[in-house]
Design a protein that fits this description.
The C terminus is likely disordered. The strands form 2 sheets. The chain has a 3-stranded antiparallel beta sheet, covered by helices on one side. A two-stranded antiparallel sheet has the order 4-5. It is built from 3 helices and 5 strands; from the N terminus they run E-H-E-E-H-E-E-H. 6% of the residues are buried. Helices cover 32% and strands 22% of the residues.
């Protein structure tokens, strides 16, 4: 029997360009709440997370937080935080929730 797949509520666009083009596009999205932009090796991704994404982010964040507290591991929850390293291959990533955990363990 065939299984029906539900459509995601996320919206994603992938463009190609250099760092300067990315920075111009980024300026255009400064006033757009929820839009996440990422640049990696000439690929520009514009991502608008939907309800499904937000639900999973909160569930996974809760599970990770519960585990860390149970294990007495100090951590710093940051929510959405942008990491931008222009010198190192001009990468910009926008991790969600606790996915930046390894960068912020105390």
């Amino acid at each position: 029997m065939a299984q029906l797949l539900t459509r995601t509520t996320d919206q994603r666009i992938v463009l190609y360009g250099d760092w300067e083009r990315f920075k111009l596009i980024q300026q255009g999205f400064d006033e757009t709440p929820g839009a996440k932009l990422a640049y990696y090796q000439g690929m520009i991704e514009i991502f608008m997370p939907g309800e499904d994404h937000a639900t999973f982010v909160h569930i996974i964040g809760y599970l990770i937080t519960t585990f860390l507290i149970d294990q007495n591991i100090a951590f710093k929850p940051t929510g959405d935080k942008t990491l931008e390293r222009e010198r190192l291959r001009r990468k910009r990533i926008s991790p969600t929730g606790l996915s930046v955990l390894s960068h912020f363990l105390i």
